[in-house]
Amino acid sequence: MDPILKRLNFFYRSVRVLIAAPAMAKGKYRRVQALRATRYRAVLMLFLGLTAVLLALLILGIVSLPVGSHVSPPIPFSSLTALRRQTSEWRRGEGLGTRGKQWTQVLSWEPRAFLYHNFLSKEECEYLISLAKPHLAKSTVVDDKSGGSVDSNVRTSNGMFLRRGQDRIIRDIEKRIADFTFIPAEHGEGLQILHYEFGQKYEPHHDYFGDPFNTRNGGQRTATMLMYLSDVEEGGETVFPYAKANFSDVPWWNELSECGKRGLAVKPKMGNAVLFWSTKPDGTVDPASLHGSCPVIKGDKWSAPKWMRLEEYKV
Ligand SMILES: O=C(O)CCC(=O)C(=O)O
Q1: Residue 77 domain-assigned?
Q2: How many domains does the chain have?
Q3: Fewest CB atoms within 10 Å of the CB: 58, 130, 215, 286?
């Protein structure tokens, strides 16, 4: 071919490519845009679909949002360490075994006395008894003159004290007591475990002190959580002779011993607990809190009183 024609031909082809290139690029760009739009539409449709399903489940009540409907322990937001420590305590605070159905019964307002059903599990009751058994000794009473512990026929059971916070299970139980009484665990004395055999009893008495010595640490006793670690076939009731209540109104009236019928009586049942207050809401002692343990007539009785003070009790 003629060199001039050859050059013209090359020039012509180059111009054509230059003219066609933007159009080709435009077409490709449109295709990419269209593909992207399709993808966005698909993601949007998926999102709307999932939202609709979630809304439907919420409306039907099949799922619920985690808005706290139960009371959680207070979180000291002062430090992350404290928060972490508390979180791990909640996990630990489950106690031992499984507790039966729990409910509360108001026994009396004078004195303030409440019955917590299934406060402890069977396993917890058995555990407390097993800790106490090797260390039981004759129970004593407080001498009002000296403030010391003395032997007395008024109280004939055997017993022993556990250390506050002694182990994980004790700590869990003590935390539960604090939750149910609204009294910090640090106000509590160590748990006492008591064993009553045939004929053994504790004559009616007050848990608050009449001497100036025993209130130096922690102040006056304000409340008692009395836990029953066993059933008792006959007798062994905890009786409140000064309670302002119709004693015979209790559903278990016909099952009570003569002693039990002398007041507002609670029949021991494994796992149940009676919370009663030795002080009135104004902080003064409540004489109506007089109570005693009736003699055991058949079987034996295990109980565990936890005494709580008005102030911190140092152990
Ligand atoms: O065991 C009971 O029922 C009562 C115990 C009691 O009153 C006490 O230890 O102060």
Answers
A1: no
A2: 2
A3: 130
Backbone phi, psi, residue 112, to 5°: -75, 115
Rounded to the nearest 10°, the torsion over CA 153, 156, 158, 161 is -60
Q: Which of 23-27, 56-60, 282-286, 306-310 has the lowest mean pLDDT?
A: 23-27
Euclidean distance between CA atoms 155 and 174, whole angstroms: 25
Residue 174 sits in the same domain as residue 131: yes
Cβ-in-10-Å burial (0-12, 13-18, 19+) of 16 comes to: exposed
Q: Ligand 1 mean position to 247 CA, how many Å?
A: 19
Domain assignment present for residue 72? The answer is no
249-271 residue pLDDT tens: 999 999 999 999 999 999 999 99
Residue (of 199, 186, 196, 251) closest to 226 by Cα position: 196
Atom of ligand 1 nearest to the CA of 266: 3
Q: What is the pLDDT of residue 90?
A: 45
Question: How far is residue 245's CA from residue 223's CA, in Å, rounded to a whole number?
Answer: 19
Q: What percent of the chain stands above pLDDT 90?
A: 70
